[in-house]
Amino acid sequence: MKAIWNDTIVAEADKEELIRIEGNWYFPSDSLKREYFQDSNHHTVCHWKGEANYYDVVVGDKKNDFGAWYYPNPMEGSIERVGSDFTDYVAFWNGIEITE
After folding, report:
1. Which helix (H) or strand (E) holds 65?
2. What pLDDT was estimated at residue 32?
């Protein structure tokens, strides 16, 4: 599976390594091509997963604000609800395409 933005693969992993949560594919953190990710100060809260941190995705001179998110400390009970430990797994949105 690949996460692609601005014609560039920003993350890549075998499908078996990903976790599917609420229709989103979450990639293991070690599958990210780190040169395209910058920490963001943006945060949101999911009522059952907890606080999400974000990355800006930067390719060339283009920046995708808050293009990727992850949960560094999932809420109690959320890992059991998902069935897998998704701590630090990264999901994408805002025009970042996920392909097989």
Report:
1. strand 62-70
2. 98
Adjacent-strand bridge partners of 55: 39, 68
Bridge-based pairing of strands 90-92 and 2-5 is unpaired
The answer to whether 65 and 92 are in contact (CB under 8 A) is: no
pLDDT at residue 2, rounded to an integer? 98
Parallel, antiparallel, or unpaired: how do β-strands 97-99 and 24-26 relate?
A: unpaired
Give all domains of the chain, ordered by start, each with its CATH number: 2-99 (2.170.150.40)
Span 24-66, pLDDT tens digits: 999 999 999 999 999 999 999 999 999 999 999 999 999 999 9
Count how many Cα atoms sit within 13 Å of the Cα of residue 15 in the half-sphere of its side chain: 3
Q: What end-to-end distance do the CA atoms of the chain give, in Å?
A: 4
Per-residue pLDDT, 82: 97
For 57, 60, 66, 81, the CA distances from 63, given in Å and listed in that order, are 6, 8, 9, 34
Pairing state between β 50-59 and 37-46: antiparallel
